[in-house]
């Protein structure tokens, strides 16, 4: 009984101590530290591998109780950035007084990188050619570059003598006295630190430390020292038409495209799948076809290639983007990207086309998987007898679909009823004998595309006769 009471008293004391020593919430995360086989967790009361917090000195010094080694150590945290935390630790001993928080002059500085760090803009603006020195060996071979990628959070380094390329995503920037640093993550989830100096917006020194500890990034004897020369492209400014300067979306809203000046950025929300088209020059304009063809620099993450980009204006709020090889601009068989984009704003919504009117549709058409998804017909109708489509007839902004249903009751009795869906016309255009409509479902708010093919008095929708 005495032993049990002692254990409970000890647990109670530990709980009280933990309440008195709360680690700063800005440190709560899983962290990567070089040399560790797993991520280190810091939470309200514990620092993994260091122990439980039992005392706090000032705002950044803590005493941790190491139950494994039965000793205490003081840790001094230095937060350089939300995504980067450094610390020094004292020797582990039995002392819990303020003398525990004294550090030897040569105490190591360890660096932690937040595991779930979000990318942020890099503090440098490529592009540069470079020469470099590593471990005393100089490389003056041409072909080494520091180059831009699809977005401002990324860049790539190519070392010619090593025939090695590193693609990097910036995650943290900070200054220490007169020194500027930033940390970047590779695609293999390794971390690299950089030290740089600038003068009049020009980079005057640039060093890279392969050690994720960042401690030797400014040491020219251990870091890779690079000499940079700007290689900014000198082509004449090329810009896209101003009427394109807005946000565009795919029909399912999974892709957002921003066009501004000479840049087209494609955003899927995935940091590791960035795309951009930088305008180099206008190759051809076809006003009668509302078409313009450009030579562009295509960025897919850090992969860069010159391509042809065709922009077709289908309506005031619908465009198509097509890309292909730069020497095969009009060969549709070689297009590697075909996007239909629309912008949905009050001033750009178009009325339904007036040349379609009323139609009776085969019920087979509206028993397709697509129609079930849009209208959820199966939930409302046991059997479809007929379907009527009215385009802009009752309201010039609405496409009305009327379902006439048969509901069987017993063997000889049937109930006939109807229900309607009024969807909103967002855009329409015609190519040859095909009428295209982009419509927003009143049921799901989802946008969908309908194409109607007309041949004399016959009408086909979705390539099926109706």
UniProtKB/TrEMBL annotation:
Domain DUF7043 intervals: 237-327
Residue ranges constituting the DUF7044 domain according to the UniProt record: 21-101
Phylogenetic placement of the source organism: Eukaryota, Metazoa, Spiralia, Gnathifera, Rotifera
InterPro entries: DUF7042, DUF7043, DUF7044
Matches recorded under Pfam families: DUF7042, DUF7043, DUF7044
The name this protein goes by in its record: Uncharacterized protein
Ranges for domain DUF7042: 118-228
């Amino acid at each position: 009984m005495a032993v049990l009471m002692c254990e409970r008293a000890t647990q109670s004391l530990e709980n009280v101590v933990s309440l008195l020593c709360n680690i700063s919430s800005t440190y709560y995360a899983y962290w990567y530290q070089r040399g560790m086989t797993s991520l280190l967790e810091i939470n309200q009361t514990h620092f993994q591998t260091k122990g439980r917090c039992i005392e706090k000195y000032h705002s950044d010094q803590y005493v941790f109780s190491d139950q494994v080694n039965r000793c205490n150590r003081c840790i001094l945290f230095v937060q350089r950035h939300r995504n980067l935390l450094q610390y020094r630790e004292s020797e582990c001993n039995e002392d819990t007084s303020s003398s525990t928080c004294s550090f030897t002059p040569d105490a190591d500085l360890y660096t932690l990188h937040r595991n779930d760090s979000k990318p942020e803009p890099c503090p440098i603006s490529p592009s540069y050619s470079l020469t470099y020195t590593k471990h005393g060996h100089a490389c003056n071979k041409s072909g080494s570059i520091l180059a831009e990628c699809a977005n401002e959070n990324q860049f790539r380094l190519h070392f010619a003598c090593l025939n090695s390329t590193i693609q990097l995503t910036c995650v943290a920037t900070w200054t220490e006295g007169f020194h500027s640093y930033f940390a970047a993550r590779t695609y293999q989830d390794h971390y690299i630190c950089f030290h740089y100096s600038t003068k009049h917006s020009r980079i005057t020194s640039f060093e890279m430390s392969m050690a994720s500890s960042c401690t030797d990034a400014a040491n020219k004897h251990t870091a890779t020292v690079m000499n940079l020369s700007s290689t900014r492209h000198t082509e004449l400014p090329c810009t896209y038409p101003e009427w394109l300067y807005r946000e565009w979306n795919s029909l399912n809203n999974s892709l957002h495209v921003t066009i501004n000046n000479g840049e087209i950025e494609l955003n899927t929300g995935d940091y590791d799948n960035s795309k951009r088209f930088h305008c180099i020059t206008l190759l051809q304009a076809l006003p009668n076809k509302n078409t313009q063809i450009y030579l562009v620099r295509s960025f897919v993450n850090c992969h860069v290639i010159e391509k042809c980009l065709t922009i077709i204006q289908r309506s005031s709020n619908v465009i198509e983007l097509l890309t292909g090889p730069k020497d095969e601009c009009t060969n549709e068989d070689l297009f590697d990207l075909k996007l239909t984009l629309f912008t949905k704003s009050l001033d750009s919504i178009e009325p339904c086309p007036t040349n379609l009117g009323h139609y009776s549709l085969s019920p087979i058409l509206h028993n397709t998987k697509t129609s079930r998804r849009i209208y959820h017909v199966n939930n409302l109708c046991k059997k479809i007898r007929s379907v009527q489509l009215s385009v802009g007839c009752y309201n010039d902004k609405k496409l009305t679909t009327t379902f006439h249903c048969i509901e069987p009751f017993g063997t000889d009795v049937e109930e006939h009823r109807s229900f309607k869906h009024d969807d909103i016309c967002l855009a329409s255009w015609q190519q040859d004998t095909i009428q295209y409509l982009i419509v927003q479902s009143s049921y799901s708010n989802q946008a969908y595309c309908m194409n109607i093919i007309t041949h004399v008095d016959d009408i086909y929708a979705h390539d099926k006769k109706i």
